[in-house]
Specification:
Number of helices of chain B: 8
Strand order of the largest sheet of chain A: 1-8-7-10-11-4
Number of domains of chain A: 2
Low-confidence stretches of chain B: 1-9, 105-117
Distance between the termini of chain B: 37 Å
Largest sheet of chain A: 6 strands, mixed
Structural class of chain B: mainly alpha
Number of domains of chain B: 2
CATH topology of the largest domain in chain A: Immunoglobulin-like
Structural class of chain A: alpha+beta
Radius of gyration of chain A: 25 Å
Mean pLDDT of chain A: 79
Shape of chain B: globular
Strand content of chain B: under 5%
CATH architecture of the largest domain in chain B: Orthogonal Bundle
CATH class of the largest domain in chain A: Mainly Beta
Shape of chain A: elongated
Low-confidence stretches of chain A: 81-86, 100-121
CATH architecture of the largest domain in chain A: Sandwich
Largest interface: A-B, 59 and 78 residues
Distance between the termini of chain A: 49 Å
CATH topology of the largest domain in chain B: Rna Polymerase Sigma Factor, Chain: A
Order of helices and strands of chain B: HHHHHHHH
Number of strands of chain B: 0
Oligomer: heterodimer
Chain lengths: 253, 191
């Protein structure tokens, strides 16, 4: 095929790509032409299709009310300056009397003292208690966090269930952060869903941290997470992380 | 979709305001373009629960890439339509295991053609002007595809044309549109 004919053929296949109707065989031919002739896909064709899509559509459907609510909730996350500003999660410090190293007897004594002094309480379970309850669920997945080079002192894990889309992280040794300088952000990796990780929420480690528990706030549904990654980001977090500072990773296998 | 709010700013100002992270700009963006994104996404993505996820991803990408929007190259609706198509095709590729569907590269917005060189700004007015210069049979196929939302087999059924002819005419029609938008004379549209 002459270069001129190749160019014409590539243009036609590239138009098919922009229209979304390349067959598998045509895709192979399109890729081969790129490899052999150095042609590049023309974004102008995509722009034209998008322009036709948005200009010629007979009417726009109204998104469902639930979707509008989700988008507004997302917006509040995207835009810290928006009216409904979401606050980053401040990790819940696990009281020292519940620390496993103290043993059951000491923990029971502290618990008894606390119960008697409070006269009993029907307050909402703490995040630590909710995490413990989640752990007992059959579908719950528990993965250990490993700190990266500058965070090698940390220990922790993540507990997650796809069914309820809830989860908690537990850490000890994750350094306290100054929220005006930087904040931690969780990313949930689910390749079946998208090549880009899903934002799992921004959080802070308070002074006096020690052992802490943080709930996961997944921005989108994740059905088969293979890894949970903690990054250090600018205050407020980011929508897409460059993952320049990775603090810890918990992954399957 | 009728916008729920009536912003003082023009529609074309919304994306630059999102890029400047102005309060309420993203909410207005959803009000203004939510219907468009929903309509485009549902053409490709079903069921609706999946389409809702893709719409959320689309607006997340709009938020993160609003600073790449260049009003000299495209209208806001074209830019947003581009992102919606990209995310929808990405979904199709993942879910239906169709590697032949090629979404735009991640840095697609940096590769948009320079307006001063060849391409003219892609907006409704210039698109309609170019469409008017296409042969009737091509324009009819464009309307069936983009206006009525028919798939290529549905267009073949409706018009009685062989499926291959429908595909070829749409492809070559798009190439002719590109030439017209650039101010070139298209080489006779396909038959």
């Amino acid at each position: 095929m002459s270069d001129l004919n190749s160019r014409d053929r590539f243009d036609e296949l590239d138009a098919a790509r922009a229209l979304g109707d390349l067959s598998a065989e045509e895709h192979r031919e399109w890729s081969q032409l790129i490899e052999e002739h150095g042609f590049t896909p023309d974004v102008e064709l995509d722009l034209l299709v998008a322009g036709l899509d948005s200009s010629l559509a007979e009417s726009s459907d109204t998104p469902p009310p639930d979707l509008i609510k989700k988008l507004e909730a997302d917006t509040a996350r995207f835009m810290p300056l928006a009216a409904e500003t979401p606050q980053p999660v401040v990790a819940e410090v696990i009281p020292f009397w519940r620390h496993p190293a103290l043993g059951w007897a000491a923990a029971a004594c502290f618990a008894l003292v606390l119960f008697m002094s409070s006269g009993g309480s029907d307050a909402e379970p703490s995040w630590g208690e909710q995490r413990q309850a989640l752990l007992s669920e059959q579908q719950a997945v528990q993965l250990a966090f490993a700190g990266t080079e500058n965070f090698s002192g940390l220990e922790g894990d993540v507990v997650w269930t796809d069914e309820s889309q809830t989860g908690f992280m537990r850490f000890s040794g994750l350094p306290v952060n100054d929220p005006t300088e930087a904040q931690y952000q969780l990313w949930i990796v689910d390749p079946e869903r998208d090549e880009r990780p899903v934002d799992g929420g921004v959080f802070d480690i308070p002074v006096g941290g020690g052992d802490v528990v943080i709930p996961i706030r997944a921005a989108l549904r994740v059905d088969d997470p293979v890894a949970f990654v903690i990054t250090v980001e600018q205050p407020g977090g980011v929508v897409v992380s460059k993952q320049e500072i990775v603090a810890a990773i918990a992954s399957r296998g | 979709m009728v916008p729920r709010s009536n912003p003082d700013h023009s529609v074309e100002e919304i994306l630059p305001r999102v890029a400047r992270r102005e309060p309420q700009a993203m909410t207005q963006c959803i009000d203004q373009f939510g219907g468009l994104v929903w309509s485009i996404t549902r053409r490709y993505v079903q069921p609706d629960t999946e389409a809702e996820d893709v719409v959320q991803e689309t607006f997340a990408e709009i938020w993160s890439k609003a600073d790449r929007f260049d009003p000299a190259k495209a209208s806001s609706s074209t830019f947003i339509g581009l992102v919606a198509r990209r995310r929808s095709i990405d979904w199709l590729r993942r879910k239906k295991r169709r590697p032949e569907l090629q979404p735009l590269p991640e840095d697609f917005d940096q590769k948009l053609p320079a307006p001063a060189a060849e391409a003219s700004r892609v907006d409704t007015e210039s698109l309609h002007a170019a469409l008017r210069q296409l042969p009737d049979e091509i324009r009819e196929l464009f309307q069936l595809h983009f206006t009525s939302g028919l798939t290529h087999p549905e267009i073949a059924d409706r018009t009685g044309l062989p499926l291959g002819t429908v595909k070829t005419r749409l492809r070559r029609g798009l190439i002719s549109m590109r030439a017209l938008m650039r101010g070139d004379q298209p080489e006779g549209a396909a038959s």
